[in-house]
Amino acid sequence: QVQLQESGPGLVKPSQTLSLTCTVSGASITTRNYYWTWIRQPPGKGLEWLGAISYSGHPYYSPTLKTRPSISRDTSKNQFTLQLSSVSPEDTAVYFCARGSNPRPRGPLNGTDEYDYWGQGTQVTVSS
Q: How large is the average pLDDT for residues 80-99?
């Protein structure tokens, strides 16, 4: 059984860097053709794709976030990490990690079946 678990601080101050880690069990993040993904859902809004890292370590990012996100991995711990710089209250959301078969979403995220395993999500609030 594949399981993903997000971890990180629940409260981040504006202008700081948000850092979240996803720990994967039941599967290796180096298994071919899987993409380990970060998605978020702001309050009252739909799901937003942030980026992903491939089984070979290549990152992909949402162009709307410009240069703010960085996704890395630690294969020895079977973890991947999201860092989002210069956060503002607009970054307040529930953040999810998930496993997909494509580097970027092929369609709308809401109702998608592109991701077969998800973490439970972690609330991140940006506030001073």
A: 98
